[in-house]
Amino acid sequence: MPAPSWITPALTRVRSANPYVVDAALAALVFFAASLQWMFPDEGDDRLTWQGFLLGVGTAVPLVWRRRAPFPAACAVSLFTPAMAVYHAPPPDIAYGGMVVLYTLAALAPPWQRRFMLTGWLVGASMTMMHKEDAQPFEYAFQLLSFVSAYGFGMLSRLQRAYTAALEDRARRLERERAADTARAVAQERARIARDMHDILAHAVSLMVVQAEAGPVVVRSDPERAEGAFDAIAGAGRDAMTQLRRILGVLKDEPVDGGSARLPQPGVAALAGLVRQVEDTTGLRVALRCAGEPRPLHRDTEVAVYRVVQEALTNTVKHAYASSAQVGLDWTEDELTLTVTDDGQGPADTAGDGGRGGEPDGGGGGGGGGHGLIGIRERAAACGGTARTGPGRDGGFRVVVRLPVAVGRQAAG
Q1: In the chain, what is the greatest distance between 2 CA atoms, to the nearest angstrom?
Q2: Which helix (H) or strand (E) holds 194?
Q3: Is the peptide bond prior to 19 cis by the omega test (within 30 degrees of 0)?
Q4: Are 406 and 333 in contact, with CB atoms under 8 Å apart?
Q5: Three-class SS state of 287
Q6: CA distances, 285 to each of 111, 146, 238, 394 (Å)
């Protein structure tokens, strides 16, 4: 049978009230219950004296401090209750104060205190009943069962509080874990955006610098070619702006390009356009080779393939002084091997602190430590793959990245 609707709000208000007020009300209720036996006596000897009244007050007043000092309060009640029984004016037929302190100790006190007090009350009740005239067996059982029941309810209250505290601690721990997971996801997304922005800007700026350096020469000797160089600079800049808006669009709630949906980031299918752009802009001959049957890739892996090729060709344009490069895609059943090679100056021909041409942003001889190659390794690792960089077999520089292919519907992720 469900509890009435008013019980839960009432219990909530009682728990949130001042504990002294609640315990004072409980003490008054205990004293009133203990006084009923002489307010409505069954026998003439249930008389009340002022000494008996003070002893009755002593069994109830300590309950005001039952939560602040449970053991001293229990000791005080344990002292006044047998004194009241010995004085016998009025006699304590039911030890209400004893049941309250046993409940309180079971719920709040350390093990030795609650066990000591329970043993004392059981022994004291048994001895009192033995000295009582005409004591019936059911009276023994009632007294002992009342104390044991109060102690049991206190233990249930202790277990309930421990269970509630464990649930609250688990909820707080889960909240902290969710916050940590969110922070890690944000950091990973920021790192991904930073890598993408680095690749886009480095590629676009490299192409524009190559054309701008050739501009003063061709503007005097071949004006039409100079016009093409300026067009290439403008095209590279527009393409970079489009890709940056596409990336930064994930940081905004509103759609990009005046209400249109955000365009997907480039993948394997866009490599042909990237190769043409590099050839048209820089004059570097780039061959795109594909072997094996193409297989589905995770969306992040698709983007990683494009960015790795973009970064490798950017390093070739900036540092290798190469005349040709080759991009190879070798597909197997469970892996894509991406290879980018050039015929320019290899790592052994370069000087500097780890990048081709001595720039820290470059490719890094012998696997080097430039930011570009670090980004390639991070992209491969983020997709569950590996990356190796170093001198090519016939000179130049070589980047080899192995990436896992998607299985079944996972490619849609």
Answers
A1: 134
A2: helix 137-221
A3: no
A4: no
A5: strand
A6: 84, 97, 23, 17
Which structure tokens are listed for 276? Answer: 């043409």
pLDDT of residue 259: 42
Write out the two tokens for 309: 């090729």
Query: What one-letter code names the amino acid at 339?
Result: T
Backbone angles phi, psi at 92, to 5 degrees: -80, 95
Strand partners, 391: 397
* Interatomic CA distance for residues 75 and 82, integer angstroms: 11
As a whole number of Å, the end-to-end CA separation of the chain is 50
Flag whether pLDDT at 4 surpasses 70.
Answer: no
Tokens of 229: 């160089």
pLDDT class for 253, splitting at 50, 70, 90? very low
Regarding beta strands 285-291 and 324-331, do their DSSP bridges make them parallel or antiparallel, or are they unpaired? Answer: parallel
Beta-bridge mates of residue 338: 329, 401
Angle at 175 between CA 173 and CA 180, to 5 degrees: 95
Does the global pTM surpass 0.70?
Answer: no
Q: Which residue has the higher pLDDT, 258 or 405?
A: 405
CA pair distance 225, 247, nearest whole angstrom: 33
How many Å apart are CA 41 and CA 264, to the nearest integer?
90
Task: Indicate the length of the chain as a whole number.
Answer: 413
Amino acid at 99: M
| Each residue's pLDDT tens digit, 109-134 | 888 888 888 888 777 776 666 555 55
| Token representation of residue 71 | 């053991």
User: What are 137's two structure tokens?
Assistant: 């067996």
Distance (Å, whole) CA 96 – CA 74: 12
Tens of pLDDT, residue by residue over 292-329, are 888 888 888 888 898 889 888 888 888 778 889 999 99
- The contacts of residue 128 (CB under 8 Å, 6+ apart) are 82, 85, 143
CA distances (Å), origin 273, targets 167, 267, 270, 294, 393: 57, 11, 5, 18, 28
| Identity of the amino acid at 91 | P
Q: Name the strand (E) or helix (H) holding 275.
A: helix 271-282
Cis previous bond, 266, omega within 30: no
Per-residue pLDDT tens digits for 14-61: 555 677 788 888 888 888 877 776 666 555 555 666 677 777 788 888
Helix, strand, or coil (residue 404): strand
Cα–Cα dist 83/1, whole Å: 43
